Amino acid sequence: MAAPPAPPLILASTSPRRREILEQLRIPFDVVVPEYEERSGDPVEHAVGKARSVGALGDRPVLGCDTEVICDGRVFGKAESEADAQEMLDALAGKTHEVVSGLALLTPAWEEVHREVTLVTFRPLDARDLAHYVASGEWKGRAGAYAIQGLGASFVERIEGDYLNVVGLPGALLVRILAKRFPGVYGFG
Question: I want to staple 85 with a disulfide (CB 3.0 to 4.6 A). Which of 17, 21, 139, 180 is the partner?
Answer without folding.
Answer: 139
